[in-house]
Structure formats: structure tokens, C-alpha cells
Amino acid sequence: MVRASPPNLSRRCSCRTIELGGEKHKSRSSGRSVRPFWTCISLADCYYMYRRPQLRFCQGGVVGSAFPFFRCHISSACPLVGYAGIAHSMKANTMQSSRSATKSSRLMALVRRYENRQGIEGVGARYQPAIKAVRGEAPSMSRCSQILSAKLQRSVHVLSATEAAAAVVALHCPALVDLQEQRCLPLEPARHPASLYENASFDLLWLPGTIRVAERLDLTRYQPRFVAEDAEGPYHVPVPLVGDLLLILRDAVGVYAVNWTVKLTEESFDERQGQRPLRRRSPESVMHARARHRVEQVCYEEGGIPTHRVTRMTFDRMLVDNLRMLIPWDSRRTGLQQSQREEMVDVFRGIVGTERAPLDLLEGLCIQFGCERRHCLVVLYQAIWRRQLIVDLFKPVLVNVPLKPERTNPFKQYAQLFVRGAK
To answer: Are the beta carbons of 388 and 395 closer than 8 angstroms?
Structure first.
């Protein structure tokens, strides 16, 4: 849309109405009549009611809605085209229009992908992240990876090394029921994410949706959107915000959720992603980043879901290294029976806090249980990962180093990151 100065009101345009259906009302800026209308955004599967827009002029005397989330029919029958600078502006903006069309096509494909994966909510092994750690989806500058989880029976897609560190800590938590990474925040009111699980509480609150939150906080201009066009004309389509890690946990009361937003450092929360390094810290980028995090926090907070900021300094480095080493073993299989596994774990438990290392026991265990050495390692590391064998994870866990007894429970040290929110 090309903006221009409004014409002299004495030169009234013959195109006096925009045919949108409903009752007419007068525009304060031009005296033209505009009718209310309805439109549907398929991603949210709901209707948005028309709100009176601020009207602005463009080529042909056409007016368009300044409110970004609603469809506005744009007429082409207006003969008032003699605004100064219109033709020159159109030529100057040809390349920009081409880039905008390319961006709109890309964002349309993005929204459709989000809708296909998360239009129908899935849990556990059926959950699909909005963004996968594959080429063409993950940011080109990121260190994306996939973490295979035996508990979830699927791979967890993380888009940075810091997200991977946070994910392994979350997956190690005994209270974890599910982990939903790269989850779209709802545009419109939606039910609580924990309500999809068994034994969920009946008093779980609904999420208000990012559109209503942005309106209430006067942050609508920061809502991602793009312009699409159909037979009725151009209209704006909102793009959902995508979170980092949503933990579904269970305590004595029932199932609840906790949101983790993950960045490399605290300063990174004021940087707008997808921008060149020199532009990430510009005033506009800082305002955009803060608005995005504010909308996410309030949207979840009003649903009783606390949001915690996680950086690379949040968790102990040795704890993360141990867990990243242990989690691949959790998906491996052995030919041992359950009783044999429990007996072998008891043998390993007997050397915790002594001068003997697990390596000293492997040969005898292979003879005793008639298995291979790798099977003994699978049993050892799985028992540590599943917290059946409690050791100090803040010290190196190595097969040739004696195991230390646990001095600090990591889930007591980081308990504030796992507690349920206030209602």
C-alpha cells in the first residue's frame, strides 16, 4: 500500500462506500461510508469481529484498515488517482514490493506448517514441534540438534546449545510428564496445555491468547503479521509466537505446566532474533524483543503458567555434561531380565563412595550374568539417568573413576524452575 496525503475534501471521490456488508458508518477522515465485516483466521479456527479502523489514503483513493488482524476489502473503482508523487513512489517501491511479496509467501508457508503440525494438539510421542532441527527450518546460525528421549518416545528438537542443556535437565526431572519444545502460543483463547493429560486438574485456567494480550498491553504493532490477498482483496494474517520449552510436570496436586524461555545470556533477551548482529541491539530491535517476551510471559501467566528465563549460566556445566553423556544410553537395550538388572544395580550401588570404580567390576559382572561389557555399561548409565542409582552429578561420572555419593539434589538446587505458578 502506497501512502499519500489526503486529498482536498472539496474533491469528493465518487467511490463513497466499501462493500463489506453490515451496517454503514462514516469515516471521520474522508466522510466515506464503511461497513463492518467478519473474517476468519484458519490457524486459530475462530472469528474476529470487526473493529472500527483508522482510515488512511492510498493509490486510487482507496482506504485500508490500520488494525493488523482483520480483512479489509480494497476497491479499485475510485477515479481519484491524481495525488502528487504517487507514480514516482510506485516506481521507487517496485523492488520493495517484490521483496514484500516474497516475504509474505514465505510467512504464509510458515503459518501453514505451524497449522499442520499444531492445529490438532498432540502429546507425548504424537507431539510435533513447530520448528524442527532440520535444514530449512532451524536458523542457519544456530547449533540445532535432536535429543532422543526414551521417556517421550520421540526426538526433542532444540535450536541451540543452551536449549539442549536446558532440555536434558528437564528430561532428567522425575516429575516430568512431557516436554513440548518449539510450541506455538495461541493467538486466541485456548485451553491450558496441561488439560490434555490424564489426572489433570479441573480448575486449570485458559490462556487468553497473544492477540488480546498485545491489545491490552498496547503492543499490537509488535505482533508478527504479513499481508495476504485473495478475491476480496488484501488482508493481514497474524503469525503465532513460538516458545522454547514448555514443561508438563506432575506433583501431589496434579498436572501443571512451566514455561522456560532460553537465551545464551541475559543480554540476549533484549536482542531481536533474525536480524544482523549490528541491528540486533538497535532501539527498535530492543523494543521488539522486550515486547515479544512480555506478551509471552503475560499470556502464560494469566493461565497460571510461570515463565523462567534460562541462560547458559543457569545450570552447572558439569551437571549438563554428565546428563548429555547419560541420555543416549537410556534408549539402548540389553538382553538381561529385570531381576538381573536390579541385581547388577545393587552391585554398583555397593561401590558408591568407595575407592573402587565401576570399571573394576565389569569383568566379574560379565561372567556372573553371562553378558557383554557394553550391557553392563548400559545398566549402569541407565540406572544413574533414571535416578535408580543416586550419585553426585556435579562431579565427573566416568567408568574408571570412583562414583561419589550425592551431596546436592539438582532438583532441590533448581527447585524454583520447576514449581507450579500461582492461580
So the answer is: no
**Contact present, 138 and 131 (Cβ < 8 Å):** yes
Cα diameter, the chain: 101
177 in Cβ contact with 249 (< 8 Å): yes
Strand partners, 145: 158
Residue with cell string 513460538: 242
* pLDDT tens by residue, the chain, 423 residues: 444 444 443 333 333 333 333 344 444 444 444 433 333 333 333 333 333 333 333 333 333 333 333 333 333 333 333 333 434 444 444 555 556 667 778 888 888 999 999 988 889 999 999 999 998 898 877 889 999 999 999 999 999 999 999 999 999 999 999 999 999 999 999 999 999 998 787 788 999 999 999 999 999 999 888 888 888 888 888 999 999 999 999 999 899 999 999 999 999 898 877 665 656 678 888 899 999 999 999 999 999 999 999 999 999 999 999 999 999 999 999 989 999 999 999 999 999 999 999 999 999 999 999 999 999 999 999 999 999 999 999 999 999 999 999 999 999 999 999 999 876
Distance set, CA 239 to CA 46, 221, 225, 248 (Å): 15, 13, 5, 25
Q: How far apart are CA 127 and CA 114, in angstroms?
A: 12
**Residue 63 and residue 47 in contact, taking contact as beta carbons nearer than 8 Å:** no
Q: How far apart are CA 355 and CA 385, in angstroms?
A: 22
